[in-house]
Amino acid sequence: MEKREEIIRYRIRKAKEELKNSELSFINSLYNPCVSSSYFAIFHAARALLAAKGLVSKKHAGVIHLFSAHFIRPGLINPEYGKMIRSAFEQRNNSDYADMYYVDNQQAEIQLTNAKEFLKMAESFLSSEYGIKV
């Protein structure tokens, strides 16, 4: 479990770094990068949760699928978090890859708020269910 905890802590640290990037982007009215970093904060937090169960996926769709299959469907985590990760993934793909796609202040704020909530939930879940303080 020691190695697993190290991986979990690393992924939560990555999530916090991305959240900080998202906050700085938002403050500076850089809304597309804000959305992208918000997604990656959620992505890394979800990967930390998967690591707690010994699950691995390096692909974005795989992380979303495993998160839903092992946390949402069994009722361990509120389904709203499944919606958050899917919405963040879609918004990030649009903001990073779609031509002429501009994120506005409101969209960016929603994604930033969701990233904060998702990370808080992940930290709380890891602490209460696995005794891992991050």
Q: Poorly predicted ranges (pLDDT <50, ≥5 residues)?
A: none
What would you call the shape?
Answer: globular
The CATH topology label is Four Helix Bundle (Hemerythrin (Met), subunit A)
CATH superfamily: Nucleotidyltransferases  domain 2
User: Biggest sheet, open or closed, and with what strands and sense?
Assistant: none
Mean pLDDT: 97
Percentage of β-strand residues: under 5%
| Spatial extent as radius of gyration | 14 Å
Reading the helices and strands in chain order gives HHHHH
CATH class division: Mainly Alpha
Number of domains: 1
The percent range for helix content is: over 70%
What is the total tally of β strands? 0
* SS element count, helices: 5
What's the architecture, going by CATH? Up-down Bundle
How far do the termini sit from each other?
Answer: 15 Å
Question: Pairing-aware structural class of the strands and helices?
Answer: mainly alpha
Written account of the structure:
- This protein has 134 residues and is an all-alpha fold.
- It has one domain: Up-down Bundle (Four Helix Bundle (Hemerythrin (Met), subunit A)), CATH 1.20.120.
- Helices cover 79% and strands 0% of the residues.
- The protein has five helices and no strands.
- It has helices at residues 2-27, 31-52, 60-72, 79-97, 105-130.
- The longest helix is centred in the first third of the chain and has 26 residues, at 2-27.
- It is globular, with a radius of gyration of 14 Å.
- The model has no long low-confidence stretch (mean pLDDT 97).
Task: Label this structure with key terms.
mainly alpha; Four Helix Bundle (Hemerythrin (Met), subunit A); 79% helix
